[in-house]
Amino acid sequence: MKTKDWMRMNFPLLLIGMLFIILVVVIQSFQLPETKRQTVVGCVLVGDMTDNGWNYSHYQGLSAACRAHDVAIHSVDNVAENESATYAAVEELIDKGANVIYLTSFGYGQYVDAIARKYPNVAFFCISDKGEAKNCTSYFARLYQARYLAGIIAGKASKTGILGYVSAMPNSQTNRGINAYALGILAVNPEAQIIVRFTGSWDDEAEERKSVALLQQAGADVITYHADKPHAIKEAEKRGLLSIGCNAVAEQYSDRFLTAVVYDWQVVYEKVLGDYLSGRVNFNSSYWMGFKEGAVKLHPLSPVVSDEAAQVEAEKEQQLMLGQSVFSGVIYDNQGRLRCGEGERISDAELFSGMDWYVKGVRIYE
Question: I need a labelling partner for 270 at 20 to 30 A (CA). Which of 41, 96, 137, 157 fits?
Fold first, then answer.
């Protein structure tokens, strides 16, 4: 057989063989990046990572998630919520190799878009209602669900029907917590009053302790707070008041400490980081996890909490686990306007970034 004839007859087989060889060479020469080894996580904290409060719980949760996913972590703490400090912290982390950065305080949100656009190869996750850049999204936990349950406990425990709330500043995050707490209180004591005093800071011991004193003078016998550290709880303990904690519980208090609304940030970070590592992150959709996912919970109830209150709380908790919304049904604000009607529920979009009002029964301390 002539060579030309042989080539003509066997050309398809030869072509397939050559393509196979090329494919093998390409596969052997091309290695997918090992995402876990290449990922370096950065963490920006507004306070001290050892504060036994907000910053400590974030750092511990994110560190645990990094260990679970075998990635490195660097952090910068005591970063003020202003533009220059936020940029400096992010740039420090990027210089250390961070390509996934978590901004763990609400105030950083006003800068996250500009920062994310400046560093398009870095993924940004921020506790905020901001974030339109293609490489950033928001994440949070539905602590307001636990606030509602704590309100039931507080409303049942109060003798005066006046309950005090010390909060850092008004924004959608703090407001929905105030409103959820108030709805829980009103569910068991419809005539109750919730008096809120804002301090203007996430960590101002003097103002927070002063707030407790002023709220007690106004008749409050149960105190809760929304700030980084439990200064308000310590002042309430000192004054013999009942109290509800926030964020985390790192100290032993008296039985007057009824319970606390707490996060499990490890649950949140393992989900968010795991999605990033596996390529499942959708930067057009925020993360907002609650009781159902185990991201929030109540601290064990004090022995002074009545059996009746504990039973009501347990029933409502089960309803939340099954998907019932705290902000559903008829809800009036403290100006008498209907905010939610029968058979309706307030949307996540409004809860996350549009809650600039307070429910019936809430009064801002002037």
Answer: 96
